[in-house]
Structure formats: structure tokens, C-alpha cells
Design brief:
The complex is a heterodimer of chains A (82) and B (394). By secondary structure, chain A is an all-alpha fold. Chain A contains three helices and one strand. Chain B is elongated, with a radius of gyration of 24 Å. The chains are: A mainly alpha (82), B alpha+beta (394). Strand 1 of chain A pairs parallel with strand 4 of chain B.
Chain lengths: 82, 394
């Protein structure tokens, strides 16, 4: 059955992944005006935490499986609540 | 197991409702569905949670409710804009933040259909947040963050059941005495256990004082009686006589607080008493002028302010700060005007610190104070709020 749900967009860009990880609590909130700069290590750790929470292989890389999952419809509440 | 080695399972945000009889209203409906159909699906989404607890959910058409539901598009006033079709479908606020649930009205909401996005499943998930559940990393759980498409034979995952019962306990015996989920209808109509709703406090919720004991229990004093507050409202078996529990303590107490030394101080007229728990701690009463030099008699309220841990006394239009570590304990710059506490009225009845906030009570209303902005907290619904409704479970 053709559904009207959002068809997963192709691989998410690194930037989009960063704002996704920030939106859902894996990275500190970024200040759009200051273009928050983070280390690769921080990004790898955030991706790993997301992969673990979502039950994906934990690679720390923004691989296709991970960026596809990031494109799926979901709840807007953070996964990690302080 | 998760990356931190713990087993995968539900997560609690840390707040929950103090009462179990919750109300909700749908302030803004989706454009593309019949209102009556939305009412039915939303009610079904709430019953996912009432099925396994003593929670009950009553829809109201207007007025103050616990959970407000809105279908909105884009920016909608909470600083967390929706993003059009797909992506974020909805979000909800945990009880400590008000409990409301917002749905992205750009989505193609549907009921009992493989097409579009299923309203019932998303709503049941969001109401889990409204009740205090965070996201679960159990993929099959309703509280997992990702929408899994229409599930015609939806059943709540055991992980979700464990989570909601960790917050609100299991469903107790229904009125018929049998314990089974199909008595939900009965359990919804059972009279709340005695003491959960107190006629005296619900008809007149003005109190003499309220304080937290060193054990962390909250008590409300009124006349010769007192009530113990629980997370759900009033503990059963109350009211009780003050003098039966705190021997030697009279009724009609003006104020009370528990200091960081674990001792509780009661004030009435020109006298004060000191207790450890419910045991008097020495030869009391003593004169306030003796033990709290600089503090007047006949005070209205007293509390240890969460902002700085000092003791504050309130009377009429003025307040005093008492610091036992200072000499003199009350600086000559006091008293000052209560109007400095932006939004707090004069002649208050009681003040209480609870879960990191300071609350002020006057008549049948109360105020939550924001220590950072040094003013009454801005929230929805706004303060002052009904004490009976939010504290006494009426």
C-alpha cells in the first residue's frame, strides 16, 4: 500500500546530522549564530550513542543505515533528557 | 545492552502528576479529521495508560485542565517549531513542564488506516511523555522515538507497562474487588480510596501553614488538624489532630519550616516550638524574641528559601531574612517589602520549599517562585493556580 509517510530522504549531510543529534540530546544545543564548532571525536561519540539507542551497529560513522534512520518520522522529544 | 552497558528499557524523566484523576482538552483540532473521530482516538490513546494504572482521564471542553492538546503547524509559541510533513510528528511536555501535547498539523493524520500517520499511536506515545515517560531504547516499545507505521493490532509493550507502573503503580482492585484489566471501566468509576480527596480541604483550601518534614513528607496545617500530602493528593486516613502527633503543639499554627539541621520549627503568636520529627526537642515553647532575635511575633509564614538556604519570615507587607550564622542574624536593613518578590502578594498564609522550588500560598491560590528571575514563575496555566486542584487532588 502506498503510504504518504515521508519517504526517507537520501543520506543526511553531516551538518543536518549535527543538528539532528543536537535536537535530540546527543550533542549540546548549537547556537546557530555562532556556528558551534565541535571536534570529530565529539561527533563520533554522539553518533555512537544514537546508534546504540536506536539499536544500530555502533560504528561512530554517519553510515547509510544511520542517516536513513535519522530521516524517519519520529517524536520531537529529546532521546536524552538531562 | 546500551552503549553504557545497562539493559535496554524504559526511561523516566523524573516528574509525575501528584493526582491520578487527570483532565485534558483538545484546544485545536487537525484540519483534515472529524472532531468526533479525533475525540474518540484521543480517548483511546489515553486508555492505553489507564488500562494498567489507576489513572483516569476526563475530557473537558474548556477551562483549566492538566493536559492541553493542540494541532499546530510550524512555529506555534513554544519555541520548538514543527517541520512540515515527515520528520518531527509531535512533541509533548513532561508533567513538571505542564504536560501539554502538540501535534504537527502538516502531517496527514489518519485513523485506522495504512495511509498517512496514525493518530492513535502517535498520541498514545506523546501522552506517555505527558505522564513522565522519556524515550525507551527498546525498539518494540511504544515509547521508542521512531514512528513504525500503522499497527492494526496495537498492544502496549511490557517495557511501557513497567515504565508507567514505576510512576503510578499498578491498577488496584476495582470496585468489584477482582483485579483484572477488563475491570478498567469499573476501576474508572470506583470511588477514589478514602482520603485521596478531602472534602474539608477541597471546599476551603486556605491553610494556616505548610511545611516539609526532615523525612521529606509535606504537611498542611489548618486549625487543630493536619493532612499529609502524597504524590497523588492527600494521604488516606487524614485529617488527624496536630496535638496527637506533635505532643505539646497547639492548633492554629502561624508558620513552620524545617531547617538544614533536620529540626522543625513551629510559630504561633509570640512563641515557637522545636521538634525533631514529631518529638519535642527541649523545653518549649520559648519566646520568638529569644530564639529568633529581630523577628516579630504573629508572623504569617516562614520558609528556607531555595535561592540561598536562608530563613525568610513574612508578615503583612514585609519580610525578614534570618541567618543563624550571622551576628546579628537579622541585618538592620530588614524588614523589606514583600513587593520585592515580584508577583507575590502581601499577607500570605504559607510558604513551602518543594522539589527545588519555593511556593507561596494565599487564600485558595498558590504561586511558584522562579529563583533565577526573582519573580513568580511564568507557566501555562499561569500562576496563581488553584491549591485545591494542584496540591490536594480535588
Amino acid at each position: 500500500v502506498k503510504t504518504r509517510e515521508a519517504i526517507p530522504v537520501t543520506a543526511l549531510s553531516e551538518n543536518n546530522a549535527m543538528s539532528y543529534l543536537s535536537q535530540f540530546g546527543y550533542l549540546p544545543p548549537t547556537n546557530p549564530t555562532s556556528g558551534g564548532f565541535i571536534t570529530q571525536e565529539t561527533m563520533t561519540k554522539a553518533i555512537s550513542e544514537f546508534q546504540s539507542f536506536a539499536g544500530l551497529n555502533v560504528t561512530g560513522d554517519l553510515d547509510n543505515e544511520t542517516s536513513t534512520l535519522m530521516s524517519l518520522p519520529r517524536c520531537g522529544v529529546k532521546d536524552k533528557v538531562g | 545492552a546500551s552503549s553504557d552497558g545497562r539493559s535496554k528499557r524504559y526511561a523516566l524523566q523524573g516528574s509525575r502528576w501528584r493526582v491520578k484523576k487527570l483532565t485534558y482538552k483538545i484546544s485545536k483540532y487537525p484540519r483534515i479529521l472529524e472532531k468526533s473521530a479525533v475525540d474518540k482516538d484521543v480517548s483511546r490513546a489515553f486508555s492505553v495508560w489507564s488500562e494498567y494504572t489507576d489513572l483516569t482521564f476526563t475530557q473537558k471542553r474548556s477551562g483549566q485542565v492538566h493536559i492541553e492538546i493542540r494541532f499546530e503547524r510550524g512555529e506555534h509559541g513554544d519555541g520548538d517549531p514543527f517541520d512540515g510533513p515527515g520528520g518531527t510528528l509531535a512533541h509533548a511536555y513532561f508533567p513538571v513542564y505542564g504536560g501539554d501535547a502538540h501535534f504537527d498539523d502538516s502531517e496527514h493524520w489518519s485513523i485506522n488506516s495504512y495511509r498517512g500517520t496514525n493518530l492513535f499511536q502517535v498520541a498514545a506515545h506523546e501522552f506517555g511523555h505527558s505522564l513522565g515517560l522519556s524515550h525507551s531504547d527498546v525498539k518494540s516499545a511504544l515509547m521508542a522515538p521512531f514512528y513504525r507505521g500503522y499497527e492494526p493490532n496495537f498492544i502496549l509493550d511490557s517495557d511501557d507497562i513497567q515504565g508507567i507502573q514505576a510512576l503510578y503503580g499498578q491498577q488496584t482492585l476495582s470496585s468489584s474487588g477482582s483485579e483484572s484489566t477488563d475491570t478498567k471501566v469499573n476501576s474508572k468509576t470506583t470511588v477514589p480510596p478514602p482520603g485521596e480527596e478531602d472534602t474539608q480541604l477541597c471546599s476551603d483550601s486556605k491553610i494556616d501553614t505548610m511545611f516539609d518534614s526532615a523525612e521529606g513528607h509535606s504537611y498542611a496545617f489548618k486549625g487543630d488538624h493536619y493532612w499529609k500530602l502524597t504524590t497523588d493528593g492527600i494521604a488516606s486516613g487524614y485529617p488527624r489532630l496536630i496535638s496527637n502527633s506533635w505532643h505539646g503543639l497547639p492548633g492554629n499554627i502561624d508558620a513552620a519550616f524545617t531547617y538544614k539541621n533536620g529540626k522543625t520549627y513551629f510559630f504561633k503568636g509570640s512563641k515557637y516550638w522545636r521538634y525533631i520529627g514529631k518529638k519535642i526537642d527541649g523545653d518549649y515553647p520559648k519566646d520568638i524574641s529569644e530564639g529568633f532575635t529581630g523577628i516579630p511575633d504573629n508572623i504569617d509564614a516562614a520558609t528556607v528559601w531555595t535561592g540561598n538556604g536562608k530563613i525568610y519570615f513574612y508578615k503583612g507587607t514585609k519580610f525578614w531574612r534570618f541567618d543563624p550564622a550571622q551576628r546579628p542574624p537579622v541585618k538592620s536593613t530588614y524588614p523589606k517589602l514583600i513587593s520585592n518578590w515580584e508577583g507575590i502578594p502581601n499577607n500570605i498564609d504559607a510558604a513551602l520549599t518543594y522539589h527545588g522550588y519555593t511556593y507561596f500560598f494565599k487564600g485558595d491560590m498558590y504561586y511558584r517562585f522562579n529563583d533565577r528571575t526573582f519573580s513568580v514563575d511564568v507557566a501555562d496555566p499561569a500562576f496563581p493556580r488553584s491549591t485545591a486542584y494542584w496540591w490536594f487532588g480535588c
